[in-house]
Amino acid sequence: xxxxxxxxxxxxxxxxxxxxxxxxxxxxxxxxxxxxxxxxxxxxxxxxxxxxxxxxxxxxxxxxxxxxxxxxxxxxxxxxxxxxxxxxxxxxxxxxxxxxxxxxxxxxxxxxxxxxxxxxxxxxxxxxxxxxxxxxxxxxxxxxxxxxxxxxxxxxxxxxxxxxxxxxxxxxxxxxxxxxxxxxxxxxxxx
Length: 191
What we know:
The chain is mainly alpha-helical. It contains ten helices and no strands. It has helices at residues 2-16, 20-38, 43-58, 62-80, 85-100, 104-122, 127-142, 146-163, 166-182, 186-190. Helix 3 runs antiparallel to helix 4.
């Protein structure tokens, strides 16, 4: 049990440092240990699988990461329900994998469904709901649906401003500016 926790923590730290190969090695071992101790359906085992899948995505191993994330999402939905916070994070991660693979329409559907659940469970102005809304806007922009994406990102920015969280507000401004810049709207990007 202790070794599994240490390896999980090391893998998480390595991932945050961008040292994905080392993170991968630690998280595989943590996942295997947790699975042996607690079983495949234990929350801690599923969290190790989730983190490992995200490291695979960061390593550019998109198909492998997507498959693992989909498995993780299905297990969490079955065990904990669609409204469980961990399940909601897994759904967003599957959407991110789809975007990485160029599956923008599929990502859009995933984000739309997850945004509706987040708003229902957490409230429309909850930070996680706003994060999912931003991800949905990104999927729309990748499909060339810029006006919809801009409107969504502007809404996220406005809500972040209302919340007064300077860091998330700055991030929302950067995201919106990047989209304006991609559209050649340099003056609006600088605003």
